[in-house]
Amino acid sequence: MFRNCLVAIVFASLASATAWAADEAPDLKTAVDKSLKAMGAENVKTLVISGQGWDGCVGQNFDPNSATWRKFSNKNYVRSIDFEARGWRLQRVRGEGENPGRGGCNAGPVPDTPQNQVTNLNANSPWATQMEFILLPEGFLKVAIEKNATVKIEKIKGKKYTVISFMGDKAPVTGYINDLGYVEKVETKIDNNVLGDIVWDAVYTDWKDFGGVKFPAHIVQHQGIPEFFDLNVSDVKVNVPVDLTPPPGRGGRGGPGGGRGPGRGAPAGPISEDLGGGFWLITGGYAAVVGDFKDYIVVVEGPQNDMRAEQIIAEAKRLVPNKPIRYVINTHTHFDHSGGLRAFVAEGATIVTHQANKSYYEKIFKDPHTLVPDKLSQMNPQPKLKIETMTDKKVLTDGEHTIDLYHLEGSTHVMGMIVAYLPKQKILIEADEFNVGQANAPTPASINPYHTNLLANIERLNLDVDRIIPIHLPGDNRKVTMAELYTAAGKEAKK
User: pLDDT tens digit string along 382-391?
Assistant: First the structure.
């Protein structure tokens, strides 16, 4: 009896040891080799991936609460990667991905346009460009070896994964390998000056055998919560020559393609123009207008990023000393026009925006900014977020100075677009609806629908406009007149 019990204990101990060993993380090389073998990719030097899908323009969606960024279709998508040279060629026909075509990064509908781009990584390549290589199953594994990544075993929702992780630019890059040896997901965090710490990931599903190599037939990427990239893979070719010679013109690049939100680079220094009656135009980057009200300052637009916002704030205080900035008027939610709002909130200013944007701003202002802390995130305690909204019209006045705000009906750029009108100065301040080109340009062969809609709203509201100030100022800093808008819209100016 004792002998039988002893045998049972020994077998139980062996079973326990075997289970523990099965959950013990392998060393890095073993984990990577096993995954490459499972995918049939041990000897893969090049891959040519073909398919159809779409990609997004980050921060430029029509509805700020959309589940996807502004979409552009990718037809005849072919990405040819040389893993040893660390380069790739991307060929596609990029066109309209929204129905109807709405949002930023171009007025829809966007025509199909062939593209041919070559990217060659080097030591100075931006992190976002490096991530385009890492966000391939084989690319991730190769970089993991170079970075001497850590390996552990994790159970996630009842499934066991081999988890490989290494330090990226400012946050870890982590890949999840399932029990078949396939890389199911790669993710990291990046900084976005509007959303803060956001996840950039790639999820690989529907794995198929393409001539002996296993590859996901469906790839989805996210930047933040919204989807950023979606590709249905129809074919994969292995170890065919890849030409990394940059095409002539602008086809070669060393940085990421598409929109990934506004950067943090320094715009030019501010220069102010007196608009009369206590208003000034701030140039030297994205435009802003400063209003000297009786007891406070009003600023129209908090654009780009903290750096530009701080320039505007400093110039506003120089022009109007000893008064607080009480209001910052936000034309719309697109990142290049809302990227400086956090700096204004740090000043204690109230955001004035359309009602459609209120819940969105309340949500994103709670997001952490730890990767690249900004002024607001470092304040303790943080100022309370204050938002005033409007629907069709709102008037800011102290009896002497007046700003009329109007919702731009019919905009296909963004749902909550606001224009500001200075009635005494007869000046209209607008963003993205009329981005002017060269002076004295003729009527274009193809009329931009933004232009016709802006003109229709001005006429609907019966606004007496002598000058238009685009937030995207003309390169020659000229004064833009209504005559230019009529020409751009293909209409005769009213007399």
Answer: 999 999 999 9
